[in-house]
Design a protein that fits this description.
Layout lengths: L4 E7 L5 E4 L3 E8 L5 E7 L9 H4 L5 E7 L2 E14 L2 E8 L13 E2 L21 H14 L10 H5 L10 E2 L7 H10 L5 E8 L10 E8 L8 H4 L2 E3 L7 E5 L10 E5 L9 E5 L1 H5 L6 E5 L6 H15 L7 E4 L15 E6 L9 E13 L6 E8 L1
Parallel strand pairs: 12-18, 14-16
Antiparallel strand pairs: 1-2, 1-5, 3-4, 3-19, 4-7, 5-6, 6-7, 8-9, 10-11, 13-17, 14-15, 17-20, 18-19, 19-20
Length: 384
């Protein structure tokens, strides 16, 4: 089935449309709690040169929106541009990548003894302790800095109910912690959350044209539908209408750990530390497999414990890393699922898997290749 792609290049700060340009060799992806990338080539020819593609694709100040059949399926920032055959190749990353370039320059903390202005962000330095509102505080701090607002809405985070999980957090201005890294660390803690930036068209009303919206989201406890029964998603390489074209279900034990020690702030014997074990794996017969992680900015023991518990959960599932190439228009069709969804994957017996295999997996990333009009979807998954 043919699909219509439209590529809009806009000014990053004002969102004004600079040009609608064709692209070739397009590949784009979205990651759960990560930053998806896009690569493509902007052709330079008699049709595009009058549209001034050099200005429309300027790195670090241009946004790209990918519209597929009237739905925005990817959006982000043009970061690099190099010469390519017949044009210029661009590399882009989702809007979260902007916050990799933003830092905390004034100490922010939930502990008022560490700050000079006890008013809450943005007027002061105090952080709201609930982890949802911590994210709001960090993004709000970024937005109110001169020239620091790229139009990502965060008001919805402030109006949603708190998660009930309070964190002790301090970000020292002299260390210049990155906004994105600070949020990602909070999300990765035990009983953390999922986060991202949604981009979509508004519904037309009163003869007003649809507008582009980009808003930050915090999902608690997790993003997406959390069982295959809830999502109704079944991918299979068998039956009358198979959806899986190819797959790889590797098992990598090198990253698996049954005990993780996390090191926090401090020096020598005074350094904070936390050691947590995957008791279920050890009871099932796995040996002691140790890993060490470092969180030099963590000052609170309870936060370090929560972070290391999350590390253990992730490392105890590190041997499950399946990847599936699926058809875009087969059931389930592209657009009916998102990162965070849980689906049932069914592999019929074949040479690679003689007994067949089936299991519920969580979709961690979705990569789409739209070269020459055709589409290939790659799903990378992890344990539920």
């Amino acid at each position: 089935m043919a699909h219509t792609y439209t590529y809009l290049f806009c000014d990053l700060r004002t969102d004004a449309v600079l040009a609608e340009l064709p692209l070739r060799d397009v590949k784009y992806g979205t990651e759960l709690n990560g930053i998806g990338a896009l690569s493509a080539v902007v052709p330079y020819n008699d049709d595009t040169i009058p549209l001034d593609p050099d200005t429309a694709t300027r790195p670090s100040r241009t946004a790209l929106y990918v519209d597929r059949d009237g739905v925005i399926v990817w959006a982000g920032i043009v970061w690099t541009r190099v010469r390519a055959n017949g044009g210029k190749a661009i590399q882009c990353a989702e809007f979260l990548s902007y916050y990799q370039q933003r830092t905390v320059k004034t100490t922010l903390a939930t502990d008022t003894s560490l700050i000079t202005n006890p008013e809450f962000v943005p007027d002061g330095q105090r952080l709201y302790p609930d982890q949802r509102y911590l994210v709001w505080s960090l993004l709000r701090y970024a937005n109110v800095q001169p020239y620091g607002d790229i139009g990502v809405s965060i008001s919805n985070i402030a109006t949603e109910p708190g998660t009930g999980i309070n964190r002790v957090a301090t970000y020292f201005g002299y260390e210049r912690p990155k906004i994105y890294d600070s949020i990602a660390a909070l999300a990765a803690a035990d009983d953390g959350f999922d986060f991202g930036i949604e981009v979509y068209w508004t519904q037309p009303a009163n003869n007003d044209a649809p507008e582009r919206v980009k808003r930050a989201r915090v999902w608690y406890p997790r993003r997406g539908r959390q069982t295959a029964a809830a999502s109704g998603l079944v991918f299979s390489n068998g039956g009358p209408e198979p959806s899986i074209i190819d797959y790889d279900w590797p098992e990598n034990g090198t990253d698996l750990a049954t005990e993780v020690t996390g090191l926090g702030a401090g020096n020598g014997e005074a350094k904070l530390s936390s050691t947590q074990q995957a008791t279920a794996l050890l009871a099932a017969g796995y040996p002691l497999l140790e890993a060490v992680t470092t969180y030099g900015d963590v000052l609170d023991q309870s936060r370090l414990d929560a972070t290391v518990r999350a590390d253990v959960a992730a490392r105890s599932q590190a041997d499950v890393q399946p990847e599936f190439e699926v058809m875009a228009d087969a059931d389930p069709s592209f657009g009916s699922y998102t990162v965070g969804d849980v689906a049932l994957f069914v592999i019929e017996p074949d040479e690679q898997t003689p007994a067949g295999r089936r299991g519920e997996l969580r979709i961690l990333s979705i990569e789409t290749t739209a070269a020459s009009g055709s589409e290939r979807i790659t799903l990378k998954c992890g344990a539920v």
